Amino acid sequence: MSDKTVQELAGIVGIPLERLIEQMEEAGISAHSAEDKISEEEKVILLGHLRKRHGKDEQTDENLTKKVTLKRRTVTSLKQGMKPGKDTKTINIQVNKKKTYIKREEALSDAEREELERVKKDLEERAQKQEVEEQLHRDKAAREKAELEAKQAAIRKVEEDARAAQAKKEKETEAE
User: Do 37 and 17 have their domain in common?
Assistant: First the structure.
């Protein structure tokens, strides 16, 4: 029952019929004559299109308020003495203070959120690669240390065997 004709809507809104039909075509609504009926959904679509076209989002005005400005005015009086014996002069001092608070965006846009997640993932991958490289470096250092200790142990054993053989030879030569 709330369906109206294009002619009635143009009268209610207060714009020429041709202009309304033109705007409806831009919004993608199929109404080509003055007798065509317009549903509530089509009216909402037209309103949204016009708001976007004129630079406004579909958000409410309270969501659009991103900054608040507070103004404060203080008035004080100073009494200044003139020459001795004369009257005092009153000077009014007015101080205006203005403070602006800007509302931060609570929700990041999808693109910013995706970029943030991509950077976070990239940093995690770098940290993981660095950790793997450090582990490989530690393993290599431990292997080299073990090889060095094994070589040193082998050298010590050879030296001890050589000393023992030398001592045995000396005993044999003394025993003879």
Answer: yes
Q: What is the pLDDT along the chain (176 residues), one digit of tens a residue?
A: 468 888 888 888 888 888 888 888 888 887 778 888 888 888 888 888 888 887 765 555 555 567 788 999 999 998 887 777 778 888 899 999 999 887 766 555 777 878 888 999 999 999 999 999 999 999 999 999 999 999 999 999 999 999 999 998 888 888 77
Per-residue CA distances from 156 to 44, 92, 141, 147, 159 (Å): 93, 99, 22, 14, 5
Report how many domains make up the chain: 2
The whole-model pTM stands at 0.34
In a domain, residue 134? The reply is no
- Residue 20 CB neighbour total at 10 angstroms: 20
